[in-house]
Write a structure and sequence with these properties.
The relative contact order is 0.15. The protein has a six-stranded mixed beta sheet, sandwiched between helices. By secondary structure, it is of the alpha/beta class. The chain is elongated and about 75 Å long. The chain binds adenosine-5'-triphosphate (ATP). The site of adenosine-5'-triphosphate has 15 residues, from helix 2.
Length: 356
Amino acid sequence: MTSDDFLNDRRDGGTFPAAAPAPAAETVIAVDGVRRSYKDGFEAVSGVSFSVARGELFALLGTNGAGKTSTVELLEGLALPTSGTIKVLGHDPYRERAAVRPRTGVMLQEGGFPSDLTVLETALMWSACTTGARPAAEALEMVGLTSRAKVRVKQLSGGEKRRLDLALALTSRPEVLFLDEPTTGLDAEGRRDTWDLIRALRESGTTVLLTTHYLEEAETLADRLAIMHQGQIVTAGTTAEVTAAHPARIRFTLPDGVPAAHLPLSLQAGADGQRVEIRTSTLQASLHELLGWAVESGVELLGLDARSASLEEAFLQIANTQLRSRADDPRRAGPRHGSDRPTDGSTPNETKKVTA
Ligand SMILES: Nc1ncnc2c1ncn2[C@@H]1O[C@H](COP(=O)(O)OP(=O)(O)OP(=O)(O)O)[C@@H](O)[C@H]1O
């Protein structure tokens, strides 16, 4: 079959087969007390534990260097943890690679494709190396690259390369999909399309572990998420659970002649002239007290706005802590020897490449 045959096959408007539905609450990814140190002694992952159920979409967030990729590479079986245990689909992804790899799809931060092959040739090559592969043209159609099939990889934009990465990750019809920053470099429309595709995959039963810098992406897609900081998970849960730990905010402007000092002490307001901001972990009670005071005092609260903490605010609070403590990061103790080789014997570049 030629490249054109593959494309023509897909032009008849075929649909994507859905993965078989699976029993609820089966743990598909189990990470327990995992640590990863590199050759220079730097500990990038410092005791991480979490689990992901079948069909769940779990997002790993964190600032630059928090240890997301170092963790995900372990789950993908690209390196061994220094200590702790990892099970993917019930197997050790490194030692039992042959049992795990055919059932997973991996989209790394850098795919490392041969740049002179066309998009379709790349997908065909990948498909030929994969057992039970999805047809190459189908994978390209899923990510919206059909019209770019004959273009050489080196001529693709950064966003198109990300989409090709995703097409290859989908080639094995994976039960578990690892997506490392899947929408970096995509424009707004490409990002939305990718979100739709990830949602569709999840709805068809695929388990997804996603790392991302886009908080909106995690908020939109994830069933649960974890925020990493200096190699550890600082907080985890649903978006609502994660943000619940952070103070809500009430803002309003007082009329001229009513100073913020007149507000009840328990509201602990910060004021800039007549503009007042209250931070509270008991939003309903604080609002109740504020409104009661306003009615009693005959004061109108101009532009009153009350809202729970957003994921962005929760994240920024953690990130600010990181900025303050970066200089004291205990993981940076001890000499660095120039070599960036992990203790597991792989090189940094090896761990960035897609392996079948
Ligand atoms: N091969 C290596 N040798 C030594 N240190 C490394 C190596 N690879 C990564 N690191 C360090 O480990 C830490 C975690 O890196 P990692 O890439 O896992 O973070 P990340 O959360 O994925 O960051 P980003 O969001 O920037 O991709 C960083 O401080 C990084 O410099």
